[in-house]
Amino acid sequence: MLDRIVIPVLRRGVRLWLNAPGLRLRPRARMLALLAVRNQLQYLPGFVANVAPQVDGILALDDGSTDGSAEYLLSCPSVLELLRVPPDRPRWDEMGNHRRLIAAALRRRAEWVLCLDADERIEHTFRARAERVIRRGGLLGIGAYAVHLRELWDSPGAYRVDGIWGRKTRARLFQPRPDHKFDPRELHGLKAPLQARHMGVYPLANLNIYHLGMLWPEDRIARRSRYERTDPDARWQPNLGYAYLTDERGLRLRRIRPRRDY
Q1: Are 114 and 205 in contact (CB under 8 A)?
Q2: Which of 4, 36, 147, 155 has its CA 20 to 30 A from that of 261?
Q3: What is the pLDDT of residues 222-240, one digit of tens each?
């Protein structure tokens, strides 16, 4: 009974302290972005323009693209390494790809990594905010954070906030480690080390990742269809399924504030 009261209070206290402004920063941690991509050339120029200025390099994996994605990434000076999977690979291996990217991050001596998809963007103050969180959390031994995932909806300047949409967080910012315990799920697996949770959870940092892949109705329909083909019995998302991706009941949107824009 006491744990049910004390632990949530402690978690909230940690979250407020991590995200408080005003801490003087030390030299920046070496932060690399990790990207796995397949046939997403239409998103890559915007991704590189948005992400490259805020990290110390990008490690990318091309999963058998045939649309020029790999060639584009090879042309970008900010891409430090490009791992490649042949187009005739037997199947999509999300966790296998992630393992290879973590190994590359360790080879490249990354102190922190940020896992992103090609259709995601980070707010323009992401790095400064992340450095403050990293410095504060280091005093508590925290090595992984969840961040807000904002689903852009019907406008590049607005995201959905009703119901589950306003609560979407993902553990995407963390320290790479040789003993990384990987989530064994084939789909929707956690990217951060399982053993990096603090008091049973990944502390939530006040950082925004914006997702363009749900922006227009046709995007949402295509996304739902793709997941229902890949996971027809909702094995990897049993309590939610995929119909919610196109359900607009109770829709509420919020404009992105200028200081949190991407």
Answers
A1: no
A2: 36
A3: 999 999 999 999 999 999 9
Task: Name the H helices within 108-166.
Answer: 126-138
In terms of pTM, does the model score above 0.70? yes
Kindly list the distances between the CA atom of residue 200 and the CA atoms of 144, 167, 194, 197, in Å, as whole numbers in the listed order: 12, 18, 10, 5
Q: Are 256 and 165 in contact (CB under 8 A)?
A: no
- 168-211 residue pLDDT tens: 999 999 999 999 999 999 999 999 999 999 999 999 999 999 99
Give me 163's structure tokens.
């119901």
What confidence tens digit (pLDDT) does each residue in 106-135 have?
999 999 999 999 999 999 999 999 999 999
Answer for the pair 19, 205: CB distance below 8 angstroms, yes or no. yes
According to DSSP, residue 52 is labeled: G
Q: Are strands 112-116 and 169-174 parallel, antiparallel or unpaired?
A: antiparallel
- Asked whether 130 and 193 are in contact (CB, 8 A), the reply is no
